[in-house]
Amino acid sequence: MHNKNARHQASPKLVGINFGRQINITFRTKLIYMKLLFSGIFAFLMFAVSAQKKINTSAFFEVTGEVKTNLVINLQDLKKYAVHDIGDLFIYNHLGVKKSIQHKLKGVLLKEVLDSVVFNSPNANALSEYYLTIVATDGYKVVFSWNELFNSPIGKNVYLITEKDAVTMDKMNESILLVTVTDFQTGRRNVKAVNKIIVGRVK
């Protein structure tokens, strides 16, 4: 009888192994659930952040500040200028990480649009003291010096986008969109919904 009952009793070593396996399986299951949970939370937060700023598109922008006369440029005015095929543009953030691609871009040069603006400059040499602040509807700002736009190769690469991926500027979500295609971190001077350009002079 003693030997028969012994056969039905699991050895302590075997019980320990089975118990350890159960703990390991339970731990792995919890770990998988935790990963799924955190992935879901992260995805939700990313969506929430991206949805925080709704862009109010702009149908025109005004050039003000250190100019003889304020100038208002609307979408119809932009159609008067020569359109350039830009192609695809990779958007990199401040860390140099690629964030998106803007496809089939066409645009007009900002320097050509501003060619008729007369600066409050006492002489030609003083123009080197001037700069332009590009302002978006959400308050985002970027700066170009007068020399960058009108006296360097950069000026030949700063565009107001008239078409993106076969969508015209009057239907674009980012209109009026400004891009600087030669920047290393193209996201920095990728300005959506431009509504003001303020001309300033270094004091």
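Above is the first protein from milestone M3; the second protein from the same milestone is given next.
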Amino acid sequence: MPHLPISKQAGVLANTEMHGVKKAQSISRALNQKTRQKMIAWIHKRESANVSQVYEAMEMEQSVASQHLAILGCAGIVMARRERKNRVYSLNYARIDQIQDSVTKLLYRVEEQSSDSAGATG
């Protein structure tokens, strides 16, 4: 980070890390719920759906379906677009790929760390 004093660079890095943590929490919250998992699978099968289709298929109130879709949207897992009077939801496959890559990297890091610590004690 050129042109910033060291103390400001540290602050920028801390803010970036906090932003990453908040994003991870948002993703975890979105994926850690069976109803939202079913919604993701259901939308995937159909490529896209409006909220009426989602709440009818999931057998829930429209407001509940909208809340679940909003949580998935905040995590970047679904995208919404306007079609006439409806919001149509589809999966954000690019974001899902990023999430998958991040989890894979995390697993490799954890595996490497456990291998390193096992080698240090052995």
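Note on the second protein: The chain has two domains: 6-91, 92-122.
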